[in-house]
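Hi R.,

As promised, here are both runs. First protein below:
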Amino acid sequence: MGVIANIGKIYNRLWKYKYRLYLINNDNTQRDNHYYNMKSKKEKKEVIKHSSAIQVSNEVNLLQRKAWNVLLANAFDDLEKEEVFYINMSDLCKTLKFDSKNDKYIKQLLKELISIQIEWNVLGKDKQNGWGAASLLSEVQIINGVISYEYSRTVRKKLYNPNVYAKINLSLQNKFRSKYSLALYELFVDYYNNEIGIGQTPWITVEDFRKLMGLNNNEYKTFKYLNDRIIKSPIKEINKKTNINVTVEYKKLGRRINGIKFYISGEDKDIIEIIKIGEKTKIKKKEKDITELINNNKDLFETLTDEFGISKNKAIEILQTKDENFIKENLDVIRNKIKVGKVADVAGMTIDAIAKDYRSKKPQNEIEKEKKIAQEEQHKKEKKKMEMLKKQFDHHNKLKIEKIIQGLSKAEKDDEIKEFEKEEIEPSNQFIQKSYRKTGIENPFIKSFFDSYIAEKYLPEEDRKFRVWAKKKKHNIEKNKDGEYNFKK
């Protein structure tokens, strides 16, 4: 066994030596450096994508979209400073769960990524950068099993400096069997609100939806087939294979569907994480950012390190996480303690002061004011979440009622209408009776009464009562004296 291992090591060294000779002969030391950096990179398990990169016209097949996600994940950390990126062909194939021996197909796949032009920001979510069009890749090469590839300068800038990111799970994308499922899944991730655990897309016109799905004018021209194949079937796959649950709502103009909206909710541990720049950013700070931080706070940085003996790394951490006035006021507290000889370890007590806030306590009225503001913010957040939950329930309830009514035969429906008339219309006021006599249940006002009657008669509590439905979704809510719903504390 040891002999075989040694032979493997020798072969590996010879291969690297041969590869280095090739690069030296071709005067390409840059590729050499990237090769060794590439070998040391950890395997990426997710791709961070700009909202407008998610909202692209889907003129790509499933494998092309998956491959582009893998290449983007591999390049992301270096998008700002590099122009050429490298990945082993075997690593690409492994991530895609694709046969790496099929070189011709991989070459064709990469070639197609150069030729495909996509339209960006179709739904206009990224207000700052607006609409755009680009090729997925600008250049690609394969040498000795190593793929080198490039993006255009504009694409690199757009991909690395977005306002909103969405993280897409790379292993999860391999579960999809339809390019429409992956495209819709990325869209749902983009509009999912991780903070409140639910989300919804804006109303999407049928024209924009067709563009997002990459459909040409001759494909699925009838909405019935579009709905079955490109909406319902992918949603079914997404709901089955991922940790999110999606429902759809339609808007009509006359008898035609002209708008589509999707509602997204998370189940258990959400696999989605939205990161907003300027708020709760989780993207690692680059060295350039740290240099700028020190330069912008040079005096305070030197005070922390020189006067108070704090290490440079700890000083950087303090500047990154604490307000300037907060730091200065706590430093004044430590200075006063030093004057009266109450400090044995200056650096240690300074760090403790900044962590625990040694300043004089705030006046009670200021504390109460801040508490009130925090409560108002929490109330707004809960109100917004409750509104979205109520919309999702109304949509769910409406679908259930329509399904029951559609399942009734003509004779059964006529019997239900007669029963409804006897139990609900006859005992009601003159206005309702007059409306019913004039238009029957086609009147939207009367139709809502009829739907409630059908729901009460046929639906279980979890489909007709908001609180029971919400409890099933793991939301504990109650109704107050004013008839408003609140989350139980």
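And here is the second one, sequence first, then its structure tokens:
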Amino acid sequence: MAESDIESALVVRRLKNDLSPSDYLNNFQRSSGQLRYLWNGHDVPSDLKTSFAVNWTPEYLYTCFECNYTVLNVNSAPQTTEKTIGLWDCDVVEIFIAPNPGDPNRYLEIEVSPLGEWVDVELHIEKRQRSSNWQWHSNVEAACAIDNANKIWRTAFRIPSENLFGASINEGQECLGNFYRCDGTEPARNYITWRPTMTPEPNFHVPERFGKFRFVDDFGD
């Protein structure tokens, strides 16, 4: 893992038009990169390859994941009409966003499962203590697909920019964040990241390891 990989910004390209999550899911060729590392900086096993895309319009932030898997760990009775507390114990992908680059300890977390379940929360770390605001709502919309024959699951979701930033996204805007994936069950659970957190035990809540996102007006579709 090169330190330059940690320091470089992720270029987030604008879409020409807003898309539904299902339409975004069907145009995954805009891949932005891969989650190449486990939380500790080790390489991800080849059978758990995880690609992602992220784009924006003034009204929405779009994210898509494509996840190779061996066995799915999902809820037997999924529901998608409200937050699924404890979803992090299943297979999920996650995006963390710190809207203000000058205050990375205030950030937002959104998770989506292979079945379209979701959970979101606003977080604040102060004096090494983390507080959670479960009343915050991202208004995330998701579409998901499972390809059992090829052992790949995909999800695409969009989040209103107003819910993330309090305003529309603009060209040149920057924020901080990270992408994650949880796969499998303990004791063989995999904690996969874009920017490794490098903690002794798996922990995604490490704002000082967030990467920079830069929104550019270079159409990505």
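A quick note on the second one: The longest helix spans residues 3-7. Let me know what you think.

Best,
J.
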